[in-house]
Amino acid sequence: MLIFVLVSVPISMSNEIIRFSLLYLLDNADIIKILILLHTTAVSIAQVFWGLWLLPLGILIYKSSFIPQPLGILMVIACFGYVIDSILWFIYPTIGFSLSEYTFLGELLLPLWLLFYGIDKSVK
Fold it and tell me: Where are the domains of the chain?
């Protein structure tokens, strides 16, 4: 999990340089189009790693008795949503459909579960 996150962070941070460079090039529409396409491509590359780190996390949650198993299943589903989105974007860049918009529920529910219920310490 750590390797996937460590790979995605530099990609994401270097991608933000592209966003800031757009501020300096507001008068050149052609370069702006190229930089926006480059930004979208970098997000799709980073999205693979954002999804892949959810797979071991989901498996760990599913196998543990501290957090409910359905949350682990939802995390694995979110993993496949991100990876499928990236693959589809590289095959069909103009698809305009994002599966991860519908599969992110586990990523939303896990922090909420931890915030409101915490980890069940009575389980041994």
Answer: 2-116
